[in-house]
Design a protein that fits this description.
Helix content is 31%, strand content 20%. It has an eight-stranded mixed beta sheet, sandwiched between helices. It has a seven-stranded mixed beta sheet with strand order 9-15-12-11-10-13-14. By secondary structure, the protein is α/β, with parallel strands linked by helices. It has two domains: 218 residues, P-loop containing nucleotide triphosphate hydrolases (Rossmann fold); 158 residues, Nucleotidyltransferase, domain 5, CATH 3.30.420. It starts with 10 loop residues before the first helix and ends in a 5-residue tail after the last helix.
């Protein structure tokens, strides 16, 4: 099975490996670019797979192709070559799974595609590693939680996470740094089960090209430098709603008692989302939101009803402006009608409301709040289509209601 090559971690990587041996069940490594986070967690999975024969482990990302290129080919397979040798494992391309000589399996997949998600979530695992969680929604991650259920004698089941930090409104920051639940903001019930560690490129300097930090990271724009060199939780570069700030987050008790009218937006897909708004004059209040992962439209609509999100005063109706691509699914949503999907015009309108102080978000709208500071454009000026499901629903609700021009009856 080849010659075993020992992993020689840096000082900071040794600390990270020690962290993996703690009593925590949820372990996050976050920090700058090429700081060794992925290597540490992949090596931990290899070790667990070798130690516990017949165990099963999952490495997942938003897109399966990114998981295969950045984790499988760049990290997992090279380290397997150096530890068990090419004869000690087999990579099954079509299933995207590595089987080891002892019967253990390491699956690679994506949570952003229904077929892929169904495939990988059809198994139980001893380890689930969420790679680059800044791209994953909270509902997608928590949906996968139930699959950490495989029983192997002596093997303690664990969740691993890593990321280049996103905004301080991201669910991971609230859970791992603030030690608060994402949905309610209350202190974590078992905070000791959640632990994290900062790893930065400087800590991994000996394994990087000589000029990587000085000539690449040090010359990045300030926000990118803060994120990719220093591992700080900051607004992304190119944020679309960059003038939104925490003064616009309103406590539920401070919301107006009455609204002139209500509207809602509905986005379809593997991540299905709903956002409810209320108007007082020209001022918009985002009142509630809800999202689910891999749920049928009818079940989702039933859940909205059960949560009271479709309710409004008797004399009012509430239009639910749906993703026009939803087709027949729109008919399954109470009050469902096609949304105006003018993306740039909708964004401009919301930005104008933000700039005029006419836009507020209830603190309970964790979906909208988790996305609003990471909703951004790339260097070509194109909207980055990651973690934008609540923001799409928000835009449908606001801009479609304005274009409609009348109260829904």
């Amino acid at each position: 099975m080849g010659t075993t090559v020992l992993f020689k971690p840096t000082v900071i990587q040794r600390k990270a490996l020690a962290l993996l041996k703690s009593g925590a069940k949820h372990i996050l490594l976050f920090g700058g670019s090429r700081s060794g986070k992925t290597t540490v967690l992949v090596m931990a999975i290899i070790f667990r797979a070798l130690r516990y024969a017949g165990s099963r482990h999952l490495i997942c990302r938003y897109r399966a192709k990114d998981a295969r290129s950045s984790v499988l080919r760049e990290t997992l397979l090279p380290w397997l070559d150096n530890t068990v040798g090419k004869s000690g494992y087999r990579y099954h391309v079509h299933e995207s799974v590595v089987t080891l000589f002892n019967g253990s399996e390491i699956w690679i997949g994506g949570l952003g595609d229904r077929e892929q998600a169904d495939k990988i979530l059809g198994h139980e695992y001893n380890t689930i590693y969420f790679n680059e969680i800044s791209q994953l929604s909270y509902v997608a991650v928590t949906t996968a939680y139930s699959r950490l259920a495989m029983r192997i004698q002596g093997c303690r089941n664990l969740f691993y996470y890593d990321c280049n930090p996103g905004s301080p409104l991201h669910w991971a920051y609230k859970i791992f740094v603030l030690k608060r639940t994402f949905l309610s903001g209350e202190p974590l019930e078992k905070a000791e089960l959640y632990t994290s560690m900062l790893l930065n490129p400087e800590d991994n300097r000996e394994n990087l090209p000589e000029d990587y930090i000085s000539d690449i990271l040090d010359v990045l724009p300030e926000k990118q430098k803060a994120r990719f060199r220093d591992g700080l939780w900051v607004k992304a570069e190119g944020v679309i709603y960059d003038r939104f700030d925490e003064s616009m987050i309103v406590k539920a008790a401070d919301l107006p008692e009455q609204f002139d009218r209500y509207a809602a937006g509905q986005d379809f897909g593997l991540n299905i989302t709903f956002v409810k708004i209320g108007w007082v004059g020209d001022v918009i209040y985002v009142l509630g939101d809800y999202g689910a992962f891999n749920m049928t439209t009818q079940s989702f609509n039933d859940e909205l009803s059960a949560r009271g999100l479709l309710d409004c005063p008797d004399e009012m109706g509430m239009p639910v402006y749906c993703d026009p691509a939803g087709g027949e699914r729109i008919q399954e949503i109470r009050g469902g009608t096609k949304a105006n999907n003018s993306v740039e015009s909708g964004i401009d309108f919301i930005n104008a409301k933000i700039e005029r102080g006419q836009f507020f978000v209830c603190e309970k709208c964790t979906g909208v709040l988790s996305e609003i500071w990471d909703y951004c454009r790339d260097e070509a000026g194109q909207i980055v289509k990651l973690n934008d499901h609540f923001l799409d629903a928000l835009r449908y609700a606001i801009f479609s209601d304005v274009q409609q021009g009348v109260v829904f009856q």
